[in-house]
Design a protein that fits this description.
The complex is a heterodimer of chains A (107) and B (115). Chain A has 107 residues and is mainly β. Chain A is 0% helix and 45% strand. In chain A, the strands form two sheets. Chain A has a five-stranded mixed sheet with strand order 1-9-8-3-4, with no helix packed on it. Chain A is globular. In chain B, 0% of the residues lie in helices and 48% in strands. The chains are: A mainly beta (107), B mainly beta (115). At the A-B interface, strand 4 of A face strand 4, strand 5, strand 9 and strand 10 of B.
């Protein structure tokens, strides 16, 4: 099973882009990368996913390196409401959660 | 649509007591899951179900039992609660586990304390 490595915590100034890295060097060719986030004490929420190409939706962008060994979740204009734990998951069903990155958006 | 709901929201038990947590979803999802989350930790899968009448063990199944008698409901039982089962319990559901679009919808959680 492919594992992911994320920094434990990050800070970001409000209004700036938040770039959250994830290493998944053992990912196989048909495994998707999913991102979820968990806002304080709530259930996790789906953000975005991708296989090879970069993806963008109304919440975020996902940049996956060409070798697929790492990816970056980008929140283009972070707000205080984006403060949460962000989980990078190489997809297995059911989802397997690591400890994620605790993002603190600072005013 | 209510999405995924969990009952109760909070509960305090004494060691050795039993209880059942109820999860309900109104999205006609085939798959349902139970996770637990301890302080400062990620979610760990307890049990899951891929359809009515089926259940399977997850990462941490010991001390728990589950049942999926109806498609929309997934019950988690603690037969003899222990302090180590103090945690927040999350239920989730999803459509079939397609890699291309796999989204789990989570409930608000049940905060359980075992004294």
């Amino acid at each position: 099973d492919a594992k992911t490595t994320q920094p434990t915590s990050m800070d970001c100034a409000e209004g700036r882009a938040a770039n959250l890295p994830c290493n998944h060097s053992t990912i196989s060719g048909n495994e998707y990368v999913y991102w979820y986030r968990q806002i304080h004490s709530q259930g996790p929420q789906y953000i975005i996913h991708g296989l090879k190409n970069n993806e963008t939706n109304e919440m975020a962008s996902l940049i996956i390196t060409e070798d697929r060994k790492s990816s970056t979740l980008i929140l283009p204009h972070a707000t205080l409401r984006d403060t949460a734990v962000y989980y990078c998951i190489v997809l297995h069903t059911p989802l397997v959660f690591g400890k994620g990155t605790r993002l603190s958006v600072i005013a | 649509n209510a999405g995924v709901t969990q009952t109760p929201k909070f509960r305090v038990l004494k060691t050795g007591q039993s209880m059942t947590l109820l999860c309900a979803q109104d999205m006609n999802h085939e798959y349902m899951y139970w996770y637990r989350q301890d302080p400062g930790m990620g979610l760990r899968l307890i049990h899951y179900s891929v359809g009515e009448g089926t259940t399977a063990k997850g990462e941490v199944p010991d001390g728990y039992n589950v049942s999926r008698l109806k498609k929309q409901n997934f019950l988690l039982g603690l037969e003899s609660a222990a302090p180590s089962q103090t945690s927040v319990y999350f239920c989730a559901s999803s459509y079939f586990g397609r890699r291309e679009k796999y989204e789990q919808f989570f409930g608000p959680g049940t905060r359980l304390t075992v004294l």
